[in-house]
Amino acid sequence: xxxxxxxxxxxxxxxxxxxxxxxxxxxxxxxxxxxxxxxxxxxxxxxxxxxxxxxxxxxxxxxxxxxxxxxxxxxxxxxxxxxxxxxxxxxxxxxxxxxxxxxxxxxxxxxxxxxxxxxxxxxxxxxxxxxxxxxxxxxxxxxxxxxxxxxxxxxxxxxxxxxxxxxxx
Amino acid sequence: xxxxxxxxxxxxxxxxxxxxxxxxxxxxxxxxxxxxxxxxxxxxxxxxxxxxxxxxxxxxxxxxxxxxxxxxxxxxxxxxxxxxxxxxxxxxxxxxxxxxxxxxxxxxxxxxxxxxxxxxxxxxxxxxxxxxxxxxxxxxxxxxxxxxxxxxxxxxxxxxxxxxxxxxxxxxxxxxxxxxxxxxxxxxxxxxxxxxxxxxxxxxxxxxxxxxxxxxxxxxxxxxxxxxxxxxxxxxxxxxxxxxx
Lengths: 169, 245
Description:
The complex is a heterodimer of chains A (169) and B (245).
Chain A (H helix, E strand, L loop, with lengths): L6 H20 L2 H18 L9 H16 L23 H5 L3 H9 L3 H11 L5 H8 L3 H21 L7
Chain B lengths: L2 H8 L12 H12 L1 H22 L7 H8 L15 H21 L6 H13 L6 E2 L3 H10 L17 E9 L2 E9 L5 E8 L12 E5 L2 E8 L2 E7 L3 H5 L3
Antiparallel strand pairs in B: 1-2, 2-3, 3-4, 4-7, 5-6, 6-7
C-alpha cells in the first residue's frame, strides 16, 4: 500500500498546510479546523475514487476550497484580470516591516485584499504549490491564476504597509 | 518588457521552484541581469517574500486538530481504509506481520534514550507543528512564563544569542521531563529554536563545547552548561549556526 493512500500519513503530511489555507480563507480558527476535518472526512469516504495518486495533495486542497465556497453559499466565480490592469504603483514594503508583524496582522491584511485574490495568494505562499496546481485547485485558467497572484501580492504588501502591528505580547 | 512590467511579473516569482521555467518569469529574470535597479528591487522582494512566506507557515495549528481528525475518521463507512474488499484477510495478516516487526523494533529501542533521541524529537516537533505558548519580545516575560510552568528558566544564553530578538517560547516535555523552548527571530524570516532540559535527563549529555549535527532539515548545536543541556536549532548551515557562539 502506497503511503499516499494511508489515512494517517496523509493527515500528518497535509493537515497543517490545509488548516493554514482554511484559516487564510475563513480567518476563524474554529471554522478553519472544521473545514480541515471535513476535508479529511470527505477523503475518508470518497478518496478511494481518486486513481491518480500524484493528485492527492491537489485533491485535498481542491476539496477544502470547494467546501469553503459551499459554506459561503455562493459559488463565487471571480472575473479574470489581465496583468496589464495591475495598479501602476508597486508597493515598497521592507523585510523588517514584515518581520515586525504577527500571524493575526498577516491574516488581517489578507482579509483586506480583493476576495478574488485571497485563495490564490494563500496557496502561493503555503506549501509551494506550483502555478498549474493552484489553477487546478481553484479551477481557473493558468493565466488567471498568474494575474490574481501578481495583483494579490501587490495588494497584500500594500495592506501590510497600511497596518503595521508589532508582534503580540 | 520594461522595468515596471518586469516587476509586476516578478512579484509572483519564487526562487528555487519551477517558476523560473515559465517564459514570462525567465524573460523578466533576464531583464534583471541587465538592469541594476531592477536587480536590487528583486533582491529586496525576495527577502520580503521569504518573510511573508515564513509568517504564513508559522500560523499556529490547534494542538489537538490531528487527534480530532483521526478520531473522527476511525472507521468511516466506505472509507479509503475500509475499502479492502476481498483483500481484507491478506491485509489483516500483513498487519500482524507489521505488529511483530514493531514489537521486534521496540525490543531493540534504547532503554535510556539520550541526546540523539532528544535532539531528533525536538527537531521533529518544530518541523511538524508547534505552538508558542507565549509570544513576547521580552526575555524576562518568557523566563517568567517558563518558570511558572516548572520548565527550565535559568538558562544561560551564549553571548551572541543574547543579541538576537526573542519572539516567544513554550513548554514541551520529553520523557516526562519539562523542556523549555525559546524562539528567536533570525531577521531573515526564519526562526532559531533553543531547547533546554535538565542535564540529568540525558544519560549522554553533550560536552561544554557545542557539538554540531544535521538533523533532518535543521542544523543543531548541542552543549551542556551548569546542569542544563542545550540544543540550538535552525534551518541554516553549520557555518551560519557557528556564528552564534
